[in-house]
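Ticket #4471: complex job returned nothing on first submit. Input attached below:
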Amino acid sequence: MKKIISMLLAIVMSFALITLLPSCGGGGVDTEKGEYDVQIIQYARFDALDAANKGFRERLDEWGKESGKKFNFTQKSAGGEASNIMTAVNGAIASSPDFILTIATPVAIAAAGATSTIPVLYTAVTDPSAETSRLTGLDNVYGTSDMQPIAEQIDLIKDLKPTAKKVAFLFSAEEPNSRTQIEIAKRECDKIGLQYEEKTVTDVNAIQATVRSISEDADAIYIPTDNTIAANIGAVVAANERNLPLVVGESGMISGGGWATLSISYEILGRQTADIVISLISGKTLTEEERHQIYKGAMALDISEQAISALGLTKEQVDNIKAKYGE
Amino acid sequence: MYCMQNLLASVLASAINVLPGSVAEGFVWGILTIGVFISFKVLNVADMSVEGTLALGGTVTAAMTVAGVPIWLTMLVAVLCGAASGAITAIMHTKLKIPAILAGILTMFALYSVNIHVLGNRASLALLNKPTLKYLFMRSFGATSIIADIVISGLFVACSLGIIYLFFKTRAGYSVRATGCNPAMARAQGINTDRDIIVALAISNGLAALSGSLLAQINTGATANMGTGAIVIGLAGVVLGEAVTRESFPFGAKLAAVILGSVIYRVVLSLAIQLVTFLTMDDLKLISAVIILAVLAAKRFAPKHKKGKKRQPEVSGGGAEGV
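Support reply: We reran it on our side without changes. The output follows.
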């Protein structure tokens, strides 16, 4: 037993020693290399995050074939837990890669805080400048935000129901994220001349009463990506006796009875992130907007059959709306 | 053959790359492990509150640092908040006679909401470019992230170990150990066992909060659920620490061994991931379960040591016997 202990101690101490040796930093982007090592750290396994991961790799591989560069990807996941972030981030940095791609906020901020030399790319971070991330203003950090297209979703109300004059915002009072989204929605309403009213839900049991309290002159309901409402979208549908169009913040709510939404594609978002890497390797100097990008790709229109029949939309009209947002 | 050599070389290289990071992790989680050792082994109480108090340590440090409070003060407040939560669990257990495991779960549940409020009604808060110990260390000495992690966590785990060791050498410390060993006998000796349980759980959760505070600084941010899985990590360290010591070892050595246990756990996890390339981080939980199982099984079936006259006690995982 003693031998084992002393052996383990020796191992631990020798590795502690190795770390005290100066390690070589990345130091900017080498534009001349033929092969690039990319460490990908994904926070957890979600379809959206997997899609961003896939889009990123596919775009780089495509470009690699055109330009004769090769990309070696190493995948790491934090399994959705804070206890594994350090393992994943330190492991990625230890191999001194040329780039680190971080998918979702917790791993993005951990990697950005752990290296100031290796270029760190992020994606699927909702608001990189917000208090929850603070990724802007760092010299080695670049990436793309997955903020939902709120302004376009508001525009969609007018596309579905051109006569709409007033929209009711339905969200829960406790969720700060919903409040942020509603502020954006209000600005867009002001811009396109829609009136609005706010209907906040304080608890799950009050959802139906709140929906019934929506005023007579409201023509549509808008629901942001609100966890409480999303989990109880059925209650909203049941209380929506006047059959007001339900434009929602994300496509998950469509299967529950939401009418329509516009959403971003995480795969395209991943490709957009890969384009930043390509610009860096090509030696471009990036502006602040190019370093921290909002989604630029095509948006997918998700509309339920019920919505199409209730609104009396023809297939052509639906296709026109789809075409307007880039599909 | 050549291919084999190549593979070995690359595995060795990646192992060397990963190990320093694992040592730092072992240290950070080692602080929590000392706390879990106190509750599970010394006091013989199954305390689940650490999952909440670890996160509380992180959220308090994050929120206060963002508000501009100096980092040492945020860490002090984090430890005090953790200790207070531990005391609440202990009071539920001793005064209201709620089973310890349930009291701990209640605290853990309640703290989840508390943590969201501490973060200002958010689920997470970032500490990028805020004056955390890691940031200050990297700035002042031009150190890399891993060196900063090792030095900071090493310093705190060493201090925690020293302070806890000294505490258990005091009258109050012996009293806590007596309470854990045999509460009925301790009471017969005039020991206030309720008070001792409160003190021990406060210390245990204070350490968990310190661990969380450091973790938030190292991960550059805190989330309300960052304590998820903490109890498993703490127990793994305790069990592995037990595996490398014997019953006859002095108390101080057993205490120090849990930190070694925590480091071994992280090192083995990282190595397993490096060696078995078809496994990914997604398999981390499975690997941890197998490692702990292997250690427990090894100890069960290991030949009895020839030198020791003392009997080898059954390994109990959850800590049926006091220390």
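Residues 2-42 of chain B form the longest helix (41 residues). Closing as resolved unless it happens again.
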